[in-house]
Amino acid sequence: MFLKFSLRSVFNGAGGGNDIQWCFSQVKGAVDDDVAEADIISTVEFNHSGELLATGDKGGRVVIFQQEQENKIQSHSRGEYNVYSTFQSHEPEFDYLKSLEIEEKINKIRWLPQKNAAQFLLSTNDKTIKLWKISERDKRPEGYNLKEEDGRYRDPTTVTTLRVPVFRPMDLMVEASPRRIFANAHTYHINSISINSDYETYLSADDLRINLWHLEITDRSFNIVDIKPANMEELTEVITAAEFHPNSCNTFVYSSSKGTIRLCDMRASALCDRHSKLFEEPEDPSNRSFFSEIISSISDVKFSHSGRYMMTRDYLSVKIWDLNMENRPVETYQVHEYLRSKLCSLYENDCIFDKFECCWNGSDRSHENVTTSQSHPF
Amino acid sequence: MMFARGLKRKCTEDEEAAPSYSRQRQSLLDMSLVKLQLCHALAEPSLCRSVLIANTVRQIQEEMTQDGAWRGAAPQTTGRAPLDRLVSTDLLCRSVRDGAGDGPAAPAPRGLQSSIWEGDGPLEDKGSFQKSLDQILETLESNTPLSVDELFSDVDSSYCSLDAVLTGVVGGAQSGQDGLEALAAMAAPAPSTSCKSDLGELDHVVGILVET
User: How many angstroms separate the most distant Cα atoms in chain B?
Assistant: First the structure.
């Protein structure tokens, strides 16, 4: 496993790339050349408070890191993250109908908002979403009247007094248990999951369809977007990411491989094939090449906390969109423009198909860019 | 429309001339077709990637049609074997000819071999390229139809089947050579102006793209 934590840094609204300062505040794992394939991290996600960081890897494991409680004396320094829990979320499966393996690689993790002492998260591979409960145990009952410490029942004739078990502290144990398994709803590979602001439903998106689930119900989901053409020969565009609006539980967006974002309102119809808004920036003719479409493909879309803006990530840039303006973004940041002259090589070695993620920081006034590449440990 | 400049041409000769735009474009087309057909894993290939590559192929083909370049190309005038050309191009568009001046005196197969093994090809992993080559040949030799729509079909992913992969790898060492020579022999007649010839299944794919 190979994980680096970067100190938060900002893109200022008016400024550009020159204001960025990146450095690593913590590095986890071996900086080896021999990284096992299964250890390659495929997704990362902080929980809402930032205290926990979940990582998913190609081997189907989830590792959760927890931030140390900040030292009261040195309150300005950020606490370190240490391993909190590790569990096997998904196993490899075999689709006998197609004679193909279903990879156990974790594509996405999303945390549920915390309601009680336990934490819940959704993790998904290409086909199956699972709801995991992560709970702490730091006490155990001791002093049973009828049982020995190892669980065997005592001989009743030796019981002469009544004794009530009491809880005594023990070493912290973190347990993860699967609570729901949402399976068999996706023909294509799941690329996104997003929890609704109602905290009861969530969506899962694959290349051609988006389904709506209820967190309590595993044997049924509603299809809300379907862009599969009747004739697959006509397929030219796929869904690349989807997210619910942070405040409006009826609104969601999905991005495509052609660089468009569609905003849909579930109140308009049961099947949201017609968008309410279409966000697309006209192509810059001076930059046109055979790779234009590939690099315009959006790999991630995230709403700001306010819900007024959304951030999209394509191969070379990050764009900020105002939901009220569909014809172009309000800000564009070139993340690695120097790659533009190398697109052919990147196409050749498939790196041009790597997908990057992005996220907002807490205040929305500025944003961070956290990127994980599809195939390389980050 | 100019090409991104990232494409490097590695030659055994010292010549530093940049390849012409149409040759770069052809090379990109060939590379894309190979990418569409290969699968390196037992798991399903990414649909997003396949769609993006197929769209790129269509774009190239449209431009070539507009340019009038979409026909069986005339025999190479320069007589050099550009080392970044892939097997499919040679089979489709050129008659058997003497390749680069170096190497043993055998027709197209030698030219192809030299392009695969000599120099620092743009491919980082020659081993996987040889395996890829075997897979193409296996596909060509078998009668499994290969069309763009099959790439996206829900049920039939036979082009990715374990059998095809293993047969191609195992039989590759022996059948590779035979396959090359057999196909080179078929290519001996002057290439027709339409790519809808009986050269092989790769033509079938190309033919579909032309008609699209």
Answer: 50
| Terminal Cα-to-Cα distance of chain A (whole angstroms) | 10
Reduce the DSSP state of residue B144 to 3 states and report it: coil
Secondary-structure breakdown of chain A: helix, strand, coil percentages, each rounded to the nearest 5: 10, 40, 50
- Tell me the Ramachandran region of residue A98: left when phi exceeds 0, alpha when psi lies from -120 to 50, beta otherwise: alpha
| 3-state secondary structure (DSSP) of residue A348 | helix
Interface of B with A in 86-105 (CB under 8 A): none
What's the CA gap between A337 and A258, in Å, rounded? 19
Residue to test with chain B: of A107, A237, A283, A348, most B Cβ within 10 A: A348
DSSP-assigned states of every residue in B81-121? --TT--HHHHHHH--S---SSSS-S-SHHHHHHHHHHSS--
Number of H helices, E strands in chain A: 2, 26
Nearest-by-Cβ selection for B149 from A103, A233, A349? A233
Instruction: Check if the beta carbon of residue B86 is closer than 8 Å to that of residue B34.
Output: yes
Q: Residue A81's beta-bridge partner residues?
A: A67
ipTM, 2 dp: 0.85
Residue given tokens 């008659």 in the structure block: B95
The pLDDT-based confidence of A97 (bands split at 50, 70, 90) is confident
Q: Is the pLDDT of residue B57 over 70?
A: yes
Distance in angstroms (rounded) separating the CA atoms of residues B53 and A291: 9
Residues of B in contact with A207 (CB under 8 A): 47-48
Q: How many angstroms separate the CA atoms of A84 and A94, rounded?
A: 31
Give the ranges where chain A is alpha helix by DSSP (H).
292-296, 343-348
